[in-house]
Amino acid sequence: MAFWRISICSLLLLLLSSSTMATASIYRPRKRPTSSLIQEKFIQCFTGSSQFYIPLSTAFFTPNNASFTSVLQSTAQNLRYLVPSMPKPEFIITPQHEPQVQASVICAKRLDIHLRFRSGGHDYEGLSYVSQIESPFVIVDLSKLRSIKVDIQDNSAWVEAGATIGEVYYRIAEKSNIHGFPAGLCTSLGIGGHITGGAYGSMMRKFGLGADNVIDARIVDVNGRVLDRAAMGEDLFWAIRGGGGASFGIILEWKIKLVPVPATVTVFTVTKSLEQGATKLLYKWQTVADKLDEDLFIRVIIQKANAGKNNAKTVTTSYNALFLGNAERLLRVMQQSFPELGLTGKDCTETSWIKSVLYIAGYSSNTPAEILLQGRSTFKNYFKAKSDFVKEAIPETALEGLWKRLLEEDSPLMIWNPYGGMMARISGSQIPFPHRQGTKFKIQYLTLWQDEDNNASKHFDWIRRLYNYMAPYVSMFPRGAYVNYRDLDLGMNKNINTSFIEASLWGVRYFKDNFMRLVKVKSRVDPNNFFRHEQSIPPLPVQARY
Length: 546
What we know:
It comes from Gossypium darwinii. This protein is α+β, with helices and mostly antiparallel strands and about 550 residues long. It contains 18 helices and 18 strands. The protein has three domains: about 35-140, Uridine Diphospho-n-acetylenolpyruvylglucosamine Reductase, domain 2, CATH 3.30.43; about 150-260, Uridine Diphospho-n-acetylenolpyruvylglucosamine Reductase, domain 3; about 265-350 and about 380-470, 3-Layer(aba) Sandwich (Vanillyl-alcohol Oxidase, Chain A, domain 3). Strand 8 (about 215-220) and strand 9 form a beta hairpin.
């Protein structure tokens, strides 16, 4: 039987029949060479393989280099993975030209050194800059590859992986005030990794995900070759647009399709506390959020807050919105579809699309758009996150229980993002991101703390209890999760071997039935599992491929 005809169930039976078939990687534990020898051999290989001269002082950063820590921490968002106890790379490579990315892959493969690579550093579990399962490892940091070439006539742009989504938005708006791109709300996201997980944003109900609007790509494969869409083939092109980062190769560039935006858009934020009827209002939002005019995106930000003169604790729900149109039409839409919010003209701000990007990202109204060119995250915390997808409205009684649990934690945060519109019309198999028709909204859970708390376990315990509490009210069989909100609680690969059985536990939650197709693509393009991490897509065991 050809391996592509094997179902997940029959394959699991096949794998369970033999313990020798449970792992796919040909890599085996090895005696660790010294750091100096690793660096010496890699530099020798790298300088011989790259077509461009690059000063070692600006390309290689070792722990002995004064700039090593600042480079390592430069884009890392989750401070949990920067504490001294976390493993550190042997060195960091910062390529300035594409051939240097190719050389990094060729040399790491030749010398059997594990590779991690990052574009923006927003990986929730630090997988782009920390390896907890394998040592030694090195990091390829793509932050110097950030060219953006916007072609308004073609309604497209080529964007290098190290550019942030904020830079992309700025360069588009620089050329046109009626073009945009439907990707992330956090403007410091590196576009290289962002799109590999799907890339949702405030225009997703109108145009779908960022990954739905990619028309070409250039990637370095396991053999160090640069492949565009035509060269890589449609299966691999399908896999890299939503199949999760760092399993199939290193993204160099995306060619994105620009979308039309009106010259005037409208934004608003309306906040209601528990004392102002937040419970009933949130229940109502659940029933309409995915059915609203697709020009309207209303997310709900849920936080713990102080209430009244005595600073008693309460929960607030903030309805944070973008409408692709003017305030007059927005008010008509809201009066017809969601009058319970009580939106008035005073709540609304008409602005340009690029200014709406700043608003949704949390910047003040007088912030110049040029801040998007800084390309650095302003959100750096110790945090743990989880995600869910919701198909039926959560009842008010369950919301009351949710409030009690939020009030128990120091700094909890939940963000509910609406679906429907274009998200419901795109097939769940068009790209690997499967959470489409029937999904009302997505939940992101976070708990944050500000210092290296020795009692961090209490925050983990709290969010896991909350996650368990929500189980009856979210998607089931599988309980879905968003791959760009990586969650190692769902499972992880062990050591340097990738088990198909273990990976299936989290793989079907991120990708549903698309997981099996991703495994087939992986088995073809990277059968020896060179590109791997704690939740990478596994190749099939050799015995199961035929």
